[in-house]
Amino acid sequence: MTQVILVDDEQSVRDSARQWLELSDLTVRDFDNARDALGCITRDFAGIVLSDVKMPDIDGLAFQKKIARIDPHIPVVLFTGHGDIAMAVEAIRAGAYDFLEKPFDPERIVETIKRALEKRQLVLENRQLKKALQDSEGIDSRLVGGSAPMRTLKREIANIAPTIANVLILGETGTGKEVIARSIHTLSDRGKGPYLALNCAAIPVNMAESELFGHKSGAFTGAQGKRVGKLEAANNGTLFLDELGSMPMDVQGKLLRALECMEITPLGGNTPRPVQFRLLSAMNEDPRKAIEEGRLREDLYFRLNTVELLVPPLRERKEDIPILFSFFLERAADVYGRTVEPPTAESLAIMMSHDWPGNVRELKSLSERFVLSSLPHEERIPKLLSGKVVDRRESAVALRDQVNLFERHLIKESLARHDGNVKDVIADLRVPRRTLNEKMAKYGLKRP
Ligand SMILES: Nc1ncnc2c1ncn2[C@@H]1O[C@H](COP(=O)(O)OP(=O)(O)OP(=O)(O)O)[C@@H](O)[C@H]1O
Ligand SMILES: [Mg+2]
User: 292 and 151: one domain?
Assistant: First the structure.
């Protein structure tokens, strides 16, 4: 990887500078003019530029300005002869990093360049951190929940989103597969391209092929006008195929062929068209079972599951219930124009003991009914969930454990909200410092 781009129209200067730099283990690429050098400088260039000031065609000052337009944070160090100090000073004013007088002092040159390289490294690291942070915040605002399984899942999403890999999202109904598909699209390089979703269970079997591939006018009885298929409409974007196991087997075969050559032929058409899209798919059943039962082609499955994401059911991440509920509650209150108090600790404890067969979707609809309910506040959850609470005696979570889980959640959330400032947390939760310390130790909580 090039660390120093060296530009000077004089061969002898280039040779001696290069020699010194290479003796100090720096990788150098040299050019006899600025124009050629510019071709190799991009915004993520991880090095610095060392350039002569006086050059025919593009001089050092103009060169520096052009580099600044690519990225103002690429350090540019200028060589100056006697006559061009004034120009170098102007360049510094315009943002150049430093200048070195010719004939140069080898030690000074190496030292200046190492310093400039360190600075460049910092800029790139910061930029990367910022982007990672933005990405994870982007996920956090869509995909609520900070339990350990959710954090792992979010990390996986942030990791695979920028790639072009096909992703198969597996999870029970209502766990958030569609939200995840959208997040992957948004966080990917195709985020600006189209996002299309097709629910294979919701289209009549005989329409599936035309939905995916499109058709020419009159391709089959009832085909009025032509139709652009989802595969073509998703060109340069993402296609999300929901409930994959409901796609007719023959259409699965055709889809597989289309994926292999990235070409599609609309029904009734005869010229294939090249397409580029990323395929995300989801199933709420076990794909191996669907394969055994002859509803999913194994070869297609292996094509689509380059990455498999498993979304855990809500009962395996009960820690997320309070925050998800308050998230949905706020939105529901907004939508219905109501103000609403958060649920009582008893209500939350009941929610913690529920099994949530409908997962997050069920929790979301509970929040809506909670907002709209005419019952006294503290009776809402017990009534709305009555008969639904799974009483498995031994295996049910004990009340004490539920209360603990809830308490832990409150402290953790307050710590995060106050950036770990214990004083603020004490004021927020109205607990003595000692109690807070004890509870943090008990629940294994640390300041963020
Ligand atoms: N972690 C989450 N944060 C915020 N909202 C969520 C989360 N998970 C799910 N939801 C919401 O819950 C509802 C159900 O989610 P989604 O439609 O993505 O589920 P699904 O896994 O696709 O279910 P199905 O298999 O039934 O299609 C949606 O309204 C979605 O916005
Ligand atoms: Mg879905």
Answer: yes
